[in-house]
Write a structure and sequence with these properties.
By secondary structure, the protein is mainly α. The chain is built from nine helices and two strands. This is DNA-3-methyladenine glycosylase I-like.
Length: about 160
């Protein structure tokens, strides 16, 4: 699931979320239900992916997803899951922000820049700080719900 979230964040870069959500099922089909073990071998299907009008056909993004699948698989050969890799950055405790308004939300932060730099160093592609911060939000590593939001209250109570 984390690989799917990362891949969708990569696809969303520069586009609206509505575009990604409208194409999500087709992306899941094209990327083998985001099974990184299978996705890492999709190089030979690149021409078909680039002509599939049901998905986002950005060559760099598609190649990044395939490459990232390989990196995630290589983590497992080192006895480390992608889940462990990510949560180790924040010491297994979600970052709790206390924003009054969505206008206060940053596009990125220092933690996302740190994770982005490490991911790039480890070979991940298309993982700039803005993509990583959005991914952190989607994966639950950071709670950016407004304090008046019911989800903020549920999440903060769960992690206190």
């Amino acid at each position: 699931m984390l690989f799917e979230l990362l891949s969708l964040e990569i696809m969303q870069a520069g586009l609206s979320w509505q575009t990604v959500l409208n194409k999500r099922q087709a992306l899941k089909a094209a990327f083998e239900n985001f099974d990184y073990r299978t996705v890492q071998m999709l190089d030979s299907q690149l021409p078909q992916l680039l002509t599939n009008d049901k998905i986002i056909r950005n060559r760099r993004k598609i190649l990044a997803i395939i490459s990232n699948a390989r990196i995630i698989d290589s983590l497992e050969t080192q006895n480390k899951s992608f889940n462990q890799y990510l949560w180790d950055f924040i010491k297994w405790t979600p970052i709790q922000h206390h924003y009054q308004s969505h206008k206060d939300l940053p596009r990125t932060d220092q933690t996302a820049r740190q994770i982005s730099n490490q991911m790039k160093s480890d070979g991940f592609k298309f993982t700039g700080p803005v993509v990583v911060y959005s991914f952190m939000q989607a994966a639950g590593l950071v709670n950016d719900h407004e304090i008046s939001c019911y989800r903020y209250k549920e999440i903060t109570q769960t992690h206190e």
